[in-house]
Amino acid sequence: DIVMTQSPDSLAVSLGERATINCKSSQTVLYTSNNKNYLAWYQQKPGQPPKLLIYWASIRESGVPDRFNGSGSGTDFTLTISSLQAEDVAVYYCQQYYSTPWTFGQGTRVEIK
Amino acid sequence: QVQLQQSGPGLVKPSQTLSLTCAISGDSVSSNSAAWNWIRQSPSRGLEWLGRTYYRSKWYSDYAVSVKGRITINPDTSKNQFSLQLNSVTPEDTAVYYCAISRDGSRQYFQYWGQGTLVTVSS
Fold first, then answer.
1. pLDDT tens digits for B35-92?
2. CB-based burial, B86-122: b 16+ in 10 Å, e otherwise
3. Contacts of B100 in chain A (CB under 8 A)
4. Is A50 near chain B, with CB under 8 Å?
5. Is residue A63 within 8 Å of residue A109, measured between CB atoms?
6. Nearest Cβ partner of A49 from B106, B109, B116?
7. Cα distance from B71 to chain A (closest Cα, Å)?
C-alpha cells in the first residue's frame, strides 16, 4: 500500500496569512505515460464529510476559491491557502489514487492564531 | 450534481453484520462512468477506503485487503442505490461510514460524499 504522510499534524495561522500543508507518498504517484500526479486534497469541517478541493495535484474543483492551490510532483506535494479566512478552519487530507487501495494522509488541522 | 443519502442502523452487536445503504440522485448506479465507494473514518485508522462497485458492461467489485472476506458491496438497480455489508464486526469496526462517488478510469478521487453514518459496535 502507498503510505501518505502529512506534515505538520496541526498549524495555527493568522487571518490573511499563508498556510502550507505538506504531503509525502511512500512511492511515486506520478504516472509517466500521461505525466499526471494521482493526488487529491480534501477539506473536512466538524460533522461534515470531506469535500474535494483539488485533484491531479493542482486542479481546483469547481467552486473552490482560488486561494487554495496545490503543487508538487512524484512523492512530494503541497497545499497552500494563500490568505487564510475564518471559514478555512478545518482538517485537510491528501489522497493518492495511483494504485489500490486508495489511501489518505492522517490529516492536518488548520486553526486561527 | 450528485447527491448521496445514507441510511442504516447506528448500533451493531459484535459478531453481527453491519448493513448500510446509499441512495443516489443525480446519477445512475449503472453508469459506465462512475464507481460507488464505501469509506470509513475512525480516530485510530483515519480515513480508510473499504471498496467499490461499478458497471462496465458487467458488474465489478473490489475491496481493501483489510476487510476482504468480510465485505460485500452490492448495487440495487431497481432503487438506484448501493449497499455495504460487513460481517463479523468487532469494536474495531466502530467508525463513521461514508459512501462516495468516483469517476471512470483514472479519476479515482471522491467527488461527492454521503452525509456519513456513525456505526458503533457494542453489545
1. 999 999 999 999 999 999 999 999 999 999 999 899 999 999 999 999 999 999 999 9
2. beebeeebbbbbbbbbbbeeebbbbbbbbebbebebe
3. 49
4. yes
5. no
6. B116
7. 14
